[in-house]
Amino acid sequence: MNIWQQLKKPFFILAPMEDVTDSVFRQVIIRAGRPDLMFTEFTNCDGLNSEGHDSVVHRLKYLPIEKPLIAQIWGKTPKNYYDSARIILNLGFDGVDINMGCPEKNVIKNGCCSALLKNQSLAQEIIQATREGAQGKIPVSVKTRIGFNTIDTESWFDFLLDQNLAAIGVHGRTVKEKSKVPCHWDEIAKVSIIRNQKKSPTIIYGNGDVSTLEEAQEKSLLYGLDGIMIGRGVFHNPWLFSGKSIESASINDRLELLLYHLQLWDTTWDNQKHYPKLKKYFKIYLQNFKGAKELRIKLMETNSINEAIKLLANY
Ligand SMILES: Cc1cc2nc3c(=O)[nH]c(=O)nc-3n(C[C@H](O)[C@H](O)[C@H](O)COP(=O)(O)O)c2cc1C
């Protein structure tokens, strides 16, 4: 049984988030409350198979405690999907996921990610090449949206469900909508209905605007889904997957988790990632308590991890 089939339903996944869900942040989330499954940030498969390899391969760095873990890839060339799937298989990941949802202008311009909603023949070639690279040893999945300019659930998922994928993740917005309108959960529910009508074994999970584990449990039941993926919810509550509310996390809990993040970043990335990149995470831990803003401002002014750790120790 592949990892998607092994997961107990309903399952809850930490979403891939570029420049956020690296190995360090995934370990932080595990400490706060382990999701059933996690994804890497998306990794460009054309870069992975070029001279630029060294500048993208850090995205595939992980520790065994992060498993089960899916590596997500994106790109243009089917041959590079094939080669990347082989690399991912050899690195010991539990699956490979193809990004068909990123709505950024630059990737669309190159025909990548969500542009594939408008190019079914290339999407099919990419899925096939990835499957061949995965050699039947790890499952291939797709994370996508419900249409390009307009909602197109029936025809896009009719096509995708014919591709024999292990799982499909449905973000309930069109590409044009980006994150600007509320998620269309009724459309996500339709995908599950189409799957059932086609008697397809493909696992379907929904994604969009979920902010608590309770809400995820309700939505999976209400919309007939196998699981739910949550992304930005952890920015407001890193304990989300444990079911603990942010209100019940003491100031000490928050500072302790931040300290853990700082120390892990230091030992994991050394000088590979520069310190200022870490600062965007501070708000996750330092909000909604008296003195949080003042402490955050002071931390933003620090120039090294050691300086930040000292400041926290004195607090
Ligand atoms: C900062 C950021 C980076 C993201 N990077 C990726 C990515 O690398 N791959 C991907 O499939 N989706 C990416 N997404 C989309 C999320 O995985 C998710 O689909 C989206 O945030 C909606 O879920 P949410 O409302 O639970 O956050 C990103 C989202 C954010 C906010």
| Number of separate helices | 15
Strand content: 5-15%
CATH topology of the largest domain: TIM Barrel
What small molecules are bound in this structure?
Answer: flavin mononucleotide
Major sheet: 8 strands, parallel, barrel
CATH class of the largest domain: Alpha Beta
Order of neighbouring strands in the sheet with most strands: 1-2-3-4-5-6-7-8
Number of separate domains: 2
Q: How far from one another are the termini?
A: 49 Å
Question: What does this entry look like structurally?
Answer:
This protein has 2 domains: 3-242, TIM Barrel; 250-314, no CATH class. It has 315 residues and is α/β, with parallel strands linked by helices. An 8-stranded parallel β-barrel has the order 1-2-3-4-5-6-7-8, surrounded by 4 helices. The protein has helices at residues 3-6, 23-32, 45-48, 53-56, 78-90, 105-109, 120-134, 153-161, 185-197, 213-222, 233-236, 251-269, 282-285, 292-300, 305-314; strands at residues 11-14, 37-44, 69-74, 95-100, 140-145, 167-171, 203-207, 227-230. The site of flavin mononucleotide (FMN) has 21 residues, from β2.
What's the layout of helices and strands?
Layout: H1 3-6, E1 11-14, H2 23-32, E2 37-44, H3 45-48, H4 53-56, E3 69-74, H5 78-90, E4 95-100, H6 105-109, H7 120-134, E5 140-145, H8 153-161, E6 167-171, H9 185-197, E7 203-207, H10 213-222, E8 227-230, H11 233-236, H12 251-269, H13 282-285, H14 292-300, H15 305-314
Parallel strand pairs: 1-2, 1-8, 2-3, 3-4, 4-5, 5-6, 6-7, 7-8
Helix pairs in contact: 2-12, 5-7, 8-9, 12-15
Flavin mononucleotide (FMN) binds at residues 15-18, 20, 41-42, 72, 99, 101-102, 143, 171, 207-210, 230-233.
